[in-house]
Amino acid sequence: MSAPGISTRAARMVGEPSHLVEAHTTAVADPFDPQRNPQGYVNLGTAENELVSDLLLPRLRAAREVVASDTHYGSLHGTDEFRSAVADLLTSHAGRPVDGSRLVAMSGTSAVLDALAYALCEEGEAVVVPAPFYGGFDVDFTARARARLVPAPLSSGDGFALSARAVTDAVEQARAAGTTVPAVALISPHNPTGRVYAADALREVVDATRALGVHLVVDEIYARSVFGDVVFTSALSFEDEHVHVVWGFAKDFALSGYKVGLLHTRHDDVLAAVTAQAYLSPVSNDVQRTLVGLLGDARWVADFTAESARRLAVSHALVVDRLAELGVETAGAQAGVFAWIDLRAQLTEQTWAAERALWSKLFDDAHINIAAGELFHGDEPGWFRITHAADPVHVTEALDRLGRVLAHDE
């Protein structure tokens, strides 16, 4: 007799492997090195900040106190000490006090978003997301909760500016088609464009979602990675019960491997529902203790944030200037670790098939890993996301290779 199978819902989760993950796996298995592997892959497809290791590692290697409670079970949604330390940090960019008791810690922002989707949506219900948007939402909102994602298209003509009208139209159209829409999700600052939303535009979406009677989930994972001459407005500054803010240490502190995400909500039922799910994916006490020590040095945090922003600005300028020499424009990022670049003119035709063909040429022939726009649910083929927060030698090599591909296609 053969072994028993798995459940249908588990089989649905397995599905096809993520294209982003497949490309990343191939690229990191054969990495570019100027001396040892000059033909290897240059990986600029993974959204990580590789510019601040010299600032972080000495702090993380330093000896720290370990107490008995660190080795035992603790509060599975985050210790009081940890949530208080994070609340102090978030207060610094929220513009108003953040209450640590309204925070839930889980093992990464994907875990938090998954728990929120499970708490807010019944299977088959929709979450409206301004598009283009981070392709990881496909897993975060759909894999376990079985929600659907409905894009609210933004326009390249105005730099992908956030539009409450686009959000409202998408919600109303989905409802008219018989789909229940319990939530809207934003990424602020935006992934993949790197744009910082204007305060008025954000407030209009907060007001619109309240009027529509839906939850608003705001992923602020790049909140402290703003480098442009703009002011970032956190959704934490709004005291609306229907607004739920997600943040983590992966991007702003370049600690993606630590897997720490947090939810802030003023909604008691949502807080309780996500807190209950933290039982399944808590953050280790040891990691929490390490981060409490890191956040306890306010001067270091301020200096680190400022220096990280300075380095991000320099690395972004390198990409923009070199692309301009190649005749390629970008969306003008103001935050984050990537640029949203316009290769529409390089497509043989304005189709997703042509975009896939260009991506394959860049990946298979030139060994450059960047993320194709189709993965971000936009409505215009030809946009690509390129991570600039990497070794400048690697970034320059990738752009040189891109230039050769574009010159060959002329």
TrEMBL record:
<dbReference type="InterPro" id="IPR015421">
    <property type="entry name" value="PyrdxlP-dep_Trfase_major"/>
</dbReference>
<dbReference type="InterPro" id="IPR050478">
    <property type="entry name" value="Ethylene_sulfur-biosynth"/>
</dbReference>
<keyword id="KW-0663">Pyridoxal phosphate</keyword>
<dbReference type="GO" id="GO:0008483">
    <property type="term" value="F:transaminase activity"/>
</dbReference>
<dbReference type="GO" id="GO:0030170">
    <property type="term" value="F:pyridoxal phosphate binding"/>
</dbReference>
<feature type="domain" description="Aminotransferase class I/classII large">
    <location>
        <begin position="67"/>
        <end position="402"/>
    </location>
</feature>
<dbReference type="GO" id="GO:0006520">
    <property type="term" value="P:amino acid metabolic process"/>
</dbReference>
<dbReference type="Pfam" id="PF00155">
    <property type="entry name" value="Aminotran_1_2"/>
</dbReference>
<dbReference type="InterPro" id="IPR015422">
    <property type="entry name" value="PyrdxlP-dep_Trfase_small"/>
</dbReference>
<dbReference type="InterPro" id="IPR004839">
    <property type="entry name" value="Aminotransferase_I/II_large"/>
</dbReference>
<protein>
    <recommendedName>
        <fullName>Aminotransferase class I/classII large domain-containing protein</fullName>
    </recommendedName>
</protein>
<dbReference type="InterPro" id="IPR015424">
    <property type="entry name" value="PyrdxlP-dep_Trfase"/>
</dbReference>
